[in-house]
Write a structure and sequence with these properties.
Layout (H helix, E strand, L loop, with lengths): L2 H11 L9 H12 L4 E3 L5 E4 L26 H8 L6 H9 L1 H9 L15 H11 L8 H6 L1
Antiparallel strand pairs: 1-2
Amino acid sequence: MTKLKLAALVAVLGTPVLAEGDAAAGEELFGRQCVSCHVVANAEGEVLAGRNARTGPNLFGIVGGPVGAVEGYNYGEAIVAAGEAGAIWDEDTFVAYVQDPTDWLRVTLDDRRARSKMSFRVRSEDDAEDIYAYLATFSAGEGEEEAEAE
């Protein structure tokens, strides 16, 4: 990640995002495992990653944001409740969630009946960390520096 992108993330999120994973490996994994359901599209609708899938929410700018809160996506009740309880998409939350979404919700909400709409599971912790590192390269402030400089 370039210093400019890291600075943009810090400015947008208020705290640095230090991802353990390899963003380049995460990009490859995203392209193989996530694109059938997810897209990364900026506020202008430009698809930055994925194939404009609509099964899952747009993942642009989720890093550091509240769980279950992408505007316009119809989430399940459990993930909305987790977000309302204060869960955010930090690395630990993301890695645990994508490895077993339903279990993460059940533990987080202390509700054995909680269920996730996401049925896919990322098999390894390293892969989940890499995907998180890749998603951390996309922030809500991306591109604003260039626009301001013109």
